[in-house]
UniProtKB/TrEMBL annotation:
It comes from Acetivibrio straminisolvens JCM 21531. This is Rhs family protein. InterPro entries: RHS_repeat, T6SS_VgrG/RHS, YD. Pfam families: RHS_repeat (PF05593). It comes from the Bacteria. Transmembrane segments: none annotated.
């Protein structure tokens, strides 16, 4: 099966075509990009990924990552081409308890990250390899309301070394309204030593009576984004804090047809797209004199992509484009091996 990526760019050398090959069970056996780089996938009898071989290039060798699983289907061991091994430990409920990383040949350093949960299965703490502890707190609805990271080491700006006399504590609080929307995020950073210094930043979020986000406010109290919607709850305008506006237009079926960027009240860029009767994207105009045309078969599968660039204005006032490249997909069904 041929998969088109980054197809909006009409310059032939910039267009990437990815080829995917499948096995009889529908698993991807290999992917090949436009430069011929192939990634190969192998599976065990249960359909779990057994290995992935990534391609080499001028600077790196190919790399194969191998996976092993426990009886519950969880990944318990992962080994890459550099002999770096990751081991995963789980509890009886299949929740990750620890991740251990070490090397089997020449790489001696071992790092372990540990995780703990409450009776409801919520993650309540993480301990990273440096001993930093991240704690999570939840409300009665299971929503995270507080995160605390203890004992983060500080770097002395003068010596560039770890400051042994001070550490920092990072706290984040999340507040919700009665509808479950996040209305405020509070970040507190404490520098702890002989004295404690704190800094606080508050981000606020506003919603309309339909629960749609309409404004984001930064710690200085300035609105960094405002959003307007149409009657179908589709976003039609977005304003940032620097007088930039993005505007969206839709057809009668609610599909996006035009996107415009404004600055100081002037249009600085415009994108357009059209659709066929089945709702598939038919054309895209990038606003820079380039158009992409998508052609489908009766099944609605993409069979051809034509990359066009602006040529002239016709007698009817319509833009004329010339065909600079056509990509064909001769086999849109998965290739089975």
């Amino acid at each position: 099966m041929y998969v088109f990526e980054d197809i909006d760019n009409p310059l032939g050398e910039e267009v990437r075509v990815k080829i995917e090959i499948y096995d009889y069970t529908g698993n991807v056996k290999s992917t090949t990009d436009a430069k011929g780089n192939m990634t190969v996938y192998e599976y065990n009898d249960l359909g779990n990924l057994r290995s992935v071989t990534y391609p080499s290039d001028e600077s790196i060798d190919s790399n194969t990552v191998e996976y092993k699983y426990d009886s519950m289907g969880n990944v318990k061991n992962e080994k890459n081409g550099l002999d770096v091994i990751k081991e995963y430990e789980y509890d009886e409920q299949g929740r990750l308890l620890s991740t251990k990383i070490y090397g089997s040949s020449g790489i001696r350093n071992e790092t372990t990250t540990r995780y703990g949960y409450d009776l409801l299965g919520n993650l309540v703490y993480e301990i990273d390899p440096n001993g930093n502890v991240t704690k999570h707190q939840y409300d009665e609805l299971g929503r995270e309301i507080k995160t605390v990271v203890n004992n983060k080491k500080l770097i002395n700006p003068n010596t560039k070394e770890i400051n042994t006399s001070r550490t920092s504590q990072h706290e984040e609080y999340i507040c919700y309204d009665r509808d479950g929307n996040v209305v405020k995020e509070v970040e507190v950073v404490k520098s702890i030593g002989n004295t404690t210094k704190s800094s606080v930043r508050v981000y606020a979020y506003k919603y309309d009576n339909m629960g749609r986000l309409i404004e984001k406010v930064d710690p200085s109290g300035a609105a960094i984004e405002k959003i307007n919607y149409n009657l179908n709850s589709a976003q039609i305008q977005s304003f940032d804090g620097e007088d930039h506006v993005k505007e969206f237009e839709y057809n009668k079926n609610g599909m996006l047809v035009t996107t415009r960027d404004y600055h100081d009240g002037n249009v600085v860029h415009e994108w357009k797209q059209t659709y066929d009767a089945a709702g598939n994207i038919f054309t895209k105009d990038d606003g820079r004199g380039n158009e992409t045309v998508y052609i489908y078969n009766w099944r609605g599968q993409l069979t051809k992509v034509k990359l066009m660039e602006y040529d002239s204005i016709g007698s009817n006032g319509q833009k004329r484009f010339k065909d600079i490249k056509t990509l064909h997909a001769t086999a849109m069904m998965p290739t089975v091996i």
